[in-house]
Specification:
Layout lengths: L4 E7 L2 H6 L6 E8 L10 H12 L6 E4 L5 H6 L7 E4 L16 E4 L3 H8 L6 E7 L11 H12 L5 E5 L18 H10 L3 E3 L4 H4 L14 H12 L3 E3 L7 H10 L22 H13 L6 H9 L1 H9 L6 H10 L4 H10 L26 H11 L5 H8 L7 H14 L1
Helix pairs in contact: 4-9, 10-13, 11-12, 14-17
């Protein structure tokens, strides 16, 4: 601990360096409270969870925590079959969950986390992880997300902005695990009395519909691991929008008053998305559909202008969030020859996508019990629940590559090259 900074030191052993040759023998990562107030004291188990979330991919065989932790935490780590977790000798008392009525949301400024905030209790406190500036060139720009945080503060939300550089542990730069982004909220949970931490994870990610087939997330190894680990440190692991598609999160942001604070593009300035990245392409296409507009030919020209968009459409098989594109292209006519070819590739108009506008009721168990009823009522009011036919369509989701799709892809490639 250094005034308003918390610094973690990571030392690797031979087996770690075999697994992660670029990691080196010693690395550091830190957290800093952006408002210059003193960084809070943190329970040892929660410090250990932060360490685990940020180092798990780099561990060869054993992760040794250099301080005492509770028996409850160590027992929870036994679910991780690939590595062993040990700690300094001795044992401390575990930390119990508080009953404060206060919850955290790992907030990004994008549509999905904004939709999550819209359906959570008003006492929710958004926690934004501000990426430390890099000496190397990066496309990321935090300005829009920080403006989202400022707007939420003006609306009365208690927003926390915590700077960290943990993403530089990885090469290429990125979050070590998908839940690393929640580590600032974990560190502030004790001082703020948070009962749970929520994420803006949507249906495409939780139930697998961005890929080849549907999965029951609550039975997945990912859910079993992290729900257990968060519980071991007295925190709920909550996914309030796990049952809604990117289509539905966009509908919430379009119709709910809080929706105006979001911007999905993380490369452009506030109100000026870059209109070159994959997120911009998807969101522009989807918003034309939701607004009942024709898809302008210029929107499709983004495919030719952007190497990233072109690669995502042609090298991912299936395309990430392909169903969302199928939904949008079915409802936004026009766009010229490229759009028509993309409609054929994504089977737009041939597969059922109306379920994407509604909430999947079977995801209710992924919402923290303390505000489950509230969030369920909000989701039903804003979106309505899927009917039985829509649920069946979702649960039978399959999007595998085949010869017919390859032929359509060849025709699409000819148009855009």
């Amino acid at each position: 601990m250094d005034h308003n900074r918390l610094i973690f030191n990571v030392f690797s052993e031979k087996k770690d360096r075999i697994r992660s040759p670029n990691f080196g023998s010693h690395r550091q990562f830190m957290y800093r409270n952006s408002n210059n107030s003193k960084f809070p004291d943190v329970h040892a188990d929660r410090l250990a969870l932060v360490a685990l979330l940020n180092t798990l991919p780099f561990v060869g065989e054993t992760l040794h925590i250099g301080w005492q932790v509770s028996k409850k935490f160590l027992e929870a780590t036994e679910i991780i079959s690939r590595i062993n977790v040990t700690s300094m000798e001795g044992e401390i008392e575990p930390i119990e969950r508080k009953s404060s009525g206060r919850h955290a949301l790992s907030f990004s400024g994008g549509a999905d986390s904004t939709a999550a905030l819209a359906v959570m209790p008003h006492s929710t406190e958004p926690v934004f992880m501000l990426r430390s500036e890099s000496k190397s060139r990066t496309l990321y720009d935090s300005q829009a997300a920080l403006e989202s945080c400022r707007q939420l503060s003006r609306l009365g939300y208690n927003v926390h902005i915590i700077e960290s550089d943990f993403e530089y542990l990885r090469k290429p730069i990125g979050f070590p695990t998908d839940l690393s982004v929640s580590t600032p909220a974990i560190l502030f949970a004790e001082s703020r009395g948070f009962e749970s931490i929520a994420f803006g994870t949507i249906l495409e990610s939780s139930f697998g519909t961005s890929g080849q087939s549907f999965r029951n997330y609550s039975e997945s190894s990912h859910y079993r691991l992290w729900a257990r680990m968060f519980d071991s440190v007295g925190l709920g692991y909550s996914l309030p929008v796990a049952g809604i598609s990117e289509v539905a999160s966009s509908i919430i942001c379009r119709n709910h008053p809080i929706g105006r604070v979001h911007q999905s593009c993380i490369r452009g300035k506030w109100g000026e998305p870059c209109e070159r990245c994959w997120k911009c392409f998807r969101k522009i296409t989807l918003m034309n559909a939701l607004d009942g507009n024709e898809m302008p030919t210029s929107g499709m020209e983004m495919i030719r202008r952007s190497k990233e968009v072109k690669l995502r459409l042609t090298e991912d098989k299936p395309i990430k969030h392909e169903g969302v594109l199928a939904y949008a292209l079915e409802r936004a006519s026009g766009g010229g020859e490229i759009a028509e070819s993309l409609r054929l590739l994504t089977k737009s108009g041939k597969i059922k996508t109306d379920w994407m506008q509604h909430w999947y009721p079977k995801s209710v168990n992924l919402i923290d019990p303390s505000y489950r009823n509230y969030t369920e009522s909000q989701l039903m009011e804003l979106l309505g629940g899927m009917n039985q036919n829509q649920i069946q369509t979702l649960e039978s989701w399959s999007n595998n590559n085949d010869n017919d799709r390859e032929e359509k892809l060849v025709r699409f490639l000819k148009l855009i090259n």
